[in-house]
Each structure stands twice: as C-alpha cells, then as structure tokens.
From TrEMBL:
Its cofactor is heme. InterPro entries: Cyt_P450 (IPR001128), Cyt_P450_CS (IPR017972), Cyt_P450_E_grp-I (IPR002401), Cyt_P450_sf (IPR036396), Cytochrome_P450_fam2 (IPR050182). May be involved in the metabolism of insect hormones and in the breakdown of synthetic insecticides. It is an enzyme of class 1 (oxidoreductase). One of its GO terms (biological process) is organic acid metabolic process. It is a multi-pass membrane protein; Peripheral membrane protein. This is Cytochrome P450 2U1. Keywords: Endoplasmic reticulum, Heme, Iron, Lipid metabolism, Membrane, Metal-binding, Microsome, Mitochondrion, Mitochondrion inner membrane, Monooxygenase, Oxidoreductase, Transmembrane, Transmembrane helix. Belongs to the cytochrome P450 family. It catalyses: (5Z,8Z,11Z,14Z)-eicosatetraenoate + reduced [NADPH--hemoprotein reductase] + O2 = 19-hydroxy-(5Z,8Z,11Z,14Z)-eicosatetraenoate + oxidized [NADPH--hemoprotein reductase] + H2O + H(+); (5Z,8Z,11Z,14Z)-eicosatetraenoate + reduced [NADPH--hemoprotein reductase] + O2 = 20-hydroxy-(5Z,8Z,11Z,14Z)-eicosatetraenoate + oxidized [NADPH--hemoprotein reductase] + H2O + H(+); an omega-methyl-long-chain fatty acid + reduced [NADPH--hemoprotein reductase] + O2 = an omega-hydroxy-long-chain fatty acid + oxidized [NADPH--hemoprotein reductase] + H2O + H(+); N-[(5Z,8Z,11Z,14Z)-eicosatetraenoyl]-serotonin + reduced [NADPH--hemoprotein reductase] + O2 = 2-oxo-N-[(5Z,8Z,11Z,14Z)-eicosatetraenoyl]-serotonin + oxidized [NADPH--hemoprotein reductase] + H2O + H(+). It comes from Cyprideis torosa.
Length: 766
C-alpha cells in the first residue's frame, strides 16, 4: 500500500497516466462508433495497462501481442477460479491434497504463462535498477528485499504473487464496474442526461475532465457509487477466515471457516436504502446536492475493515497519552491518510505521509482551525473567524499573521542583532543554575527565560527571572498549553458541544483572563507613551497599524491581545521544552555531547561566548539541534487544522469541521526518510563533507508544514542555537548517579510533548 501510494495512488498526478490509456481506448473504439459495440475486451486491456504502468513502468500499445497474451492468461485463470466453486460440494477438508491438485491444475497452465512473463520482467528490472531511483513497484520491492534478513516474507516469490494479485484484483474488477456503469446508462437515459448536464456545467466542452474536478462533480461521483451498489461486482467480497476458533458476539467462529460478506444483501437492505431496487444516484447526495461524507452505512463495495480509509469506530483504540503511537500503528495498516472516528463527534483525519502532507497543508481549504475549545473561545471575542493568529480563520488569520510576521522581522527575527537580546536572558538563566554538583531540574527557569525573550520583542520590557508577574504569566501559559491536550476526553464524549463549560473546567478561561488582565494594562501604558515616530515593540507597531485601518478592520485591539497571547503560548513552552529535550538527550548520549563540545572548542574556543554569526561554522551543533527536534517531537501532532465545508483530497472526503492532524512523530520515524530512525544521530543532518544539509529535508516537520507552518521558526532556531551551544561550551551535563534515566514513553502531552520530569548535574567546564 505504501509503495503504490508513493507511485501515485490517490494523487492527482495519476490523472495523465490514466488519461493516456483512456485516450488509447477511445481511439480504438472510435473506429466502430455508431455500430453495435462490445467494449469488454478493449476496456479490460486499458485497465490492465494502467496497473502495469505502476507495477512495471511500461506501457503497452493496446495491440501489443504481449499485452494480449497477458490479458488472455489472466482472463482464463480468473474464469477457471470461478469454476472451483464446484469443489465446495466435495468435503474439501477430507481430501485436501486431491482437491488442491484439481483446483490448481485448472488454472496452473495460465499462471505459468503469467509467471514466465513476470520473471522475465523482474530479471530485466534487476539488471537495470538504479539504487537511487525506484521506477515502479518492482524496483521498490527489490530494494526493500535488500534490507531484509534471511527468511523474510518480503522475497521474490511474494513479489511475483503480489504482482499477480494486483493484476487480478485491479484490472477485471475495475473494468467490470465500468461495464456495469455503461449498461446502467443505457438502461436509464435520464440519469445519463443528468450526469452529462453536470459535466457541461462544471467542466464545459473545451477540455477533458480532470481528477481535480472530483470535488465539484457531485452527481457524477454519486453515479459511480450507485453503479458500485447496484452492480455488486464482488457480491460476496473475498472470503476471510480465522486460524483458530474465535467468538464474536457470543457466536463460535470455527477455525478455517470461510467467512463471507453478503454485500448484495447489504446493498439492498431497506434499513439503509430507500427503494433499494431503484437505480438512483441521488441517494448518495445530501440535502445540498453534495456527495454524502464519511462512512455510508450498508455500503461495502470494497469490502469492509482494514483497507485504505481507516474508520476506527472507537476512541478507545487511540491512546490518550500518546495518540501518535496509536495513529502510527494504524498508519502502517491503512496508509498515510486515514480517518479516525471518535464516537458521536466529528472525525479526526490523520496525515502520516510526508508527501501527502506537503500537498494537503498547502491547500487553501485546509488552512482553518477546527471548532475546538480555544477556537470557540476566541470566536467569542472575534466573531466567526476567531481572533489572533493561532486560533483564527479567514481574513482575521490572514491579516494578523501577515502583520505579525512582518513586524517581528522588523524587530530582529532572523537578524544577528537579536544575539544580545537572547544572550541577556541566557546569562540570567545561567546565573540561576546550581553548579554545585547537586541534581537540578531546569524546567521552570528555562520557561521563564524563554518567555522573557518573547516579552522583550512584544512589550519591550525585561523581567527579573524572579519577578512575580513573570511567574504568574508562565503559570497561566503552561496551563493554557497543557489544557489543550485534555480535549481528547471531550472528543470521546462529544463534549465539543459545551465548549464554555469545558474551557472553564480545564482552566482555559481562567488562564486567558489572567493573561489578558496583564496585557490590557500593558497596552494601556503603551497607548499613553506611544511615539508616532518610533515603535519600541510589537504592541507599538500594532497600535500604529490600527490607526491606518477602516472601521471594522480585523487589525483591532481584541486581535492585538489575542496575537500577543498566541505569541506567548506558542513561542515559549515550545522552545523551552525543546531545550529540555535537548539536555536530556545530552545526558543520555554523552559521546554526542563530547563531539558537540569538541567542535565548539575548535571553532569558537573557550575565551568568548558563541555568537549567532558562528552558526555557519558549527555544522555538528546545528545538526544536533535538528536531531533534537526530530527525536524529541516537541509538537507531535502539530496543531489541528480543519475545513469549513466538506472537501475532497485525492478522492477522500474530508468532512467539514473535522480535526486534521499531521503525525509528525510518524514522519520523523519513517524509514523511507531516515536510516535507523530510532537512533539519536545528529550526523544524519550532515552531508558527505560534514556540512549541514541544505534546503527542505523530506520527512522533517517539527514546525508543521504548509500555509500555517510555524511563523516563529526563525526565532526558535536562533534561541535553540544560542542556548544549546553556550550551555555546552560552558558546562557538561550528566545524569544523577544511581538514578535511572527517565523512560521516554512516559511523556506528558498537551499540544506540546513534555519529556518526563528529570534532574541532571551541571558541571562547569575548565
Ligand atoms: C522549538 C520551538 C517551536 C516549535 C517546535 C513550534 C512548532 C509549531 C507548530 C508545529 C505549529 C503548528 C503549525 C500548523 O498549524 O500547521 C506552530 C504554530 C505557531 N507557532 Fe510555533 N513552534 C516553535 C516556536 C515558536 C515561536 C518562538 C513562536 C513565536 C514567538 C511561535 C509562534 C507560533 C504561532 C503564532 C503559531 C500559529 C500559526 C498559525 O496558526 O498561523 N512558535 N508552531
């Protein structure tokens, strides 16, 4: 599944692929337009060719004798399998060998034709393979075989069997469904007219229909579903079994029994379908004429269960403490995009595949935040678009994000002038560290120092790290960030419907109020002392911008408060937690700590602080920070996205108001992108010359991906660099003797994943 998805399954890039065979088919059929025509043979050839392109990277001419022979062999093999139903009359278990011989001999000759062709193809692939580029399924499989231990089930026999299965299951099925479709069209000309009318209106007559049109062609999509329902091309699905006796709902299911889904019965069950015997595509449309979303009860044309679009009907399948682990397990079964249905509430969509995420999160319709507690609270102050940056949508989000990015850049984001700013707080933090050999927990001091940096940029003030205002602010922000994680309980109980109550229960309202009291006071002071000619900080710039706005603008005081709150909450806990992860990894992997210190000693020496200007020379230390971000997974599921109305992505329906998560942990451990993903190894971010890898790094998403990617990444990377390198240059960090290292599976998760609480020993370097 993973490999086929890489080669385009479900991606609109498949469009041209399929269209090539469609056009070849039309060219052949056009010779007989206007005359009675049996499309069976040609249709099968076209569909077989599409499968073959993905599997063997070859495309046959539709008259190519190889394709014709292959088709013939598959056809005969499939037909003879049907005949084996006669064997069921014989008590198979009593004479297994005889029955097996009878069954196999009936289609063996044809299978050997296919195998001969496939073996030849695999041989050619082996001879022409390029290690760095997989052309098709066969190449990918051969490559995967190289990584396996002896006795693995990823072997050449299974490669051949897989290809045979893909051909058999992927060509006849689709072609037959299309034939049913054409038959239904001639039986119901008024339905044909209606589908054509939609095509004329939506696509027009000057271009081909494209996969991208799916989201707009509701009736045509519904027509295809109705063809699947009424055509029942796999009427009893493919039998399942169980290897040992099992019970289900109190019934004994004996080992080795054949378990069959009667999909015909389900497709005609009046419990699910009104007038089930009528051919009527509109049953798949909702009141607005849009395609029905989510799981459709009673509709099982592709079977049911673990296949493709995961529908996990119970929140109990997903760990509340470490949901990404549960999602990863499911992703290995169901693929890079899946839906997890948390009973009674909106669905969660989980994207675990980096390439899919890249396309998905760059689409405009998936920019919004879902209606969770923070959003609903911010809606109270900002109307239906919410307020601020992190929990807003639409124009409010767009304009406030744009303004914030521009203004923070003016105040030094990405400039080395920020060096002294950050160093002032680092030095204040270092002054607080106990280096007397006693075990210390640096959590709260780190949080204070990092929040102070954000506050300097936003409010042009710097607190002493013991200042009670700062302490109160950090407490409120920590509560705010951590409360978010608890809404998984809400999902379970569909409590989204009572957001105000839960905001109160989880302490979100109280934290917001505490922060706002402080912010309102600060904004008031800024207004009194504002100098038109000089903006001291973010608040001044915002107030100045407000003056240039028309009434009703989204640049207003409510959004100013929300933006600052969001910069606080998104910009402090995240960075401070990443540094805590970093220090933990240093004590766990002391040889890596030494290597980083060696580089610092060589490049910077011991007589001065590390400066932002040193970044370009400290390749290993920069790589160490990236590895901390990858391995620590500070924001494991990013922040949830949503869509305000039903949307489609690569053929999947993404229902309005669902929560969409990116499983960053899964991507950070995906062996497609990372060698030995479970090993902590900064050098994976270095190139052959020991230089930091440049450009976008596939599979690396600590700051999210797409249009809503973290706007604070540049500042965060500067903070992480100055903190980690200066700390490493001055101190050595070690674990507390006699105390076991913390268990990395006992993390705490809000939006941010906190490492388990731990103490370490800080020793000054000579
Ligand atoms: C190591 C530190 C950080 C990490 C790992 C991190 C990670 C993230 C992630 C994963 C998102 C969600 C992106 C999405 O919705 O797709 C995000 C959003 C955000 N981050 Fe960061 N972040 C960090 C530091 C910062 C800093 C320093 C600031 C600013 C001072 C900041 C401000 C924001 C804001 C305002 C958003 C919301 C963006 C929006 O909704 O458009 N972050 N961050």
């Amino acid at each position: 599944m993973r490999t086929l998805r890489d080669f385009g399954f479900g991606k609109t890039s498949m469009n041209d692929f399929i269209m090539e065979d469609f056009n070849a088919l039309v060219a052949k059929l056009s010779q007989r337009f206007g005359q009675p025509l049996d499309v069976n043979f040609r249709l099968n050839l076209a569909i077989l060719n599409i499968v073959w392109r993905m599997v063997g990277n070859e495309s046959f001419d539709h008259d190519d004798p190889v394709l014709l022979k292959l088709f013939d062999s598959f056809q005969t093999s499939l037909d003879s399998r049907g005949k084996t139903s006669v064997f069921k009359l014989i008590p198979m278990r009593l004479f297994p060998k005889a029955v097996r011989w009878l069954m196999i001999s009936s289609f063996l000759p044809f299978r050997s034709n296919i195998d001969q062709f496939l073996k030849e193809t695999v041989k050619n692939h082996k001879a022409t393979r390029d290690e760095n580029f997989n052309r098709d399924f066969i190449d990918s499989y051969l490559q995967e075989m190289q990584t396996q231990s002896p006795g693995s089930v990823i072997n050449e026999t299974n490669l051949l069997a897989n290809i045979r299965n893909l051909f058999a299951a992927g060509s006849e099925t689709t072609a037959t469904t299309l034939r049913w479709g054409l038959l239904f069209l001639i039986m119901h000309p008024q339905i044909q007219d209606r589908a054509q009318q939609e095509l004329d209106e939506v696509v027009g007559k000057d271009r081909d229909v494209h996969l991208d049109d799916r989201g707009s062609l509701h009736y045509n999509e519904a027509l295809i579903m109705e063809i699947l329902r009424c055509g029942n091309i796999a009427p009893l699905s493919v039998p399942h079994s169980c290897t040992e006796d099992a019970t289900f709902n109190g019934y004994l299911i004996p080992a080795d029994s054949a378990i069959v889904i009667n999909s015909v019965h389900m497709h005609r069950d009046s419990k699910y379908w009104k007038d089930p015997l009528k051919f009527d595509p509109s049953r798949f449309l909702d009141g607005k004429g849009h395609l029905r979303t989510g799981r459709i009860p009673g509709f099982v044309p592709f079977g049911i269960g673990p296949w493709g679009w995961a529908i996990v009907g119970s929140a109990f399948s997903v760990s509340v403490r470490r949901p990404w682990d549960s999602y990863s397990k499911l992703a290995r079964k169901f693929g890079g995009i899946m839906s997890v249905s948390m009973s009674m509430s909106a669905e969660d969509i989980i994207i675990s595949d980096y390439d899919l995420a890249l396309e998905f999160f760059n689409r405009e319709e998936f920019v919004p935040r879902p209606p969770l507690v923070p959003f609903l609270l911010s809606q109270k102050e900002g109307g239906h678009e919410g307020s601020g940056i992190a929990w807003s949508n639409g124009k409010t989000w767009q304009e406030n994000r744009r303004f914030t990015l521009r203004t923070l850049r003016d105040f030094g984001f990405g400039k080395t002038s920020l060096n002294d700013f950050i160093m002032a707080d680092l030095n204040a933090f270092v002054a607080k560290i106990d280096t007397g050999g006693q075990p210390v927990d640096l959590k709260s001091q780190l949080n204070l120092a990092i929040l102070n940096i954000v506050w300097r940029m936003v409010g042009n003030e710097s607190f002493d790290l013991d200042n009670p205002v700062l302490l109160k602010l950090v407490g409120a922000i920590t509560k705010l960030v951590n409360a978010r994680g608890k809404d998984s309980i809400m999902k379970l109980l569909a409590l989204r419907r009572f957001p105000q109550f839960f905001a109160w229960w989880f302490g979100v309202s109280k934290s917001v109020m505490e922060i706002d009291v402080f912010l309102k006071e600060t904004v008031k002071k800024h207004k009194l002392t504002l100098d038109e000619n000089y903006n001291r900080d973010f608040i001044d710039s915002y107030l100045q911008e407000m003056k240039t706005q028309e009434p009703g603008s989204v640049i207003n005081e409510g959004n100013l408060l929300a933006c600052v709150r969001h910069l606080f909450s998104a910009g402090s806990e995240t960075t401070a937690t990443t540094i805590r992860w970093g220090l933990l990894f240093l004590i766990m992997f002391s040889e890596i700590q030494e290597k980083a210190q060696d580089e610092l000693d060589q490049i910077v020496g011991k007589d001065r602080d590390v400066h932002l200007d040193d970044r370009k020379n400290l390749h290993y230390n920069e790589a160490l920070i990236l590895e901390i971000l990858r391995y620590g997974n500070t924001v494991p599921l990013s922040m949830s996205h949503s869509c305000s109305q039903d949307a489609t992505f690569q053929g999947y329906l993404i229902p309005a108001d669902c929560s969409i998560f990116i499983n960053a942990v899964h991507m950070h451990r995906d062996s497609k992108y990372w060698k030995d993903p479970l090993k902590f190894d900064p050098s994976r971010f270095l190139d052959g010359e020991g230089h930091l890898r440049s450009g976008r790094i596939p599979g690396f998403v600590p700051f999210g991906i797409g249009k809503r990617q973290c706007p604070g990444e540049i500042l965060a990377r500067m903070e992480l660099f100055l903190f980690m390198t200066n700390l490493l240059s001055r101190f050595t960090f070690s674990s507390v003797p006699g105390k076991p290292l913390p268990d990395l599976n006992t993390t705490f998760y809000g939006v941010v994943q906190q490492p388990p609480n731990y103490k370490l020993i800080v020793t000054e370097r000579k």
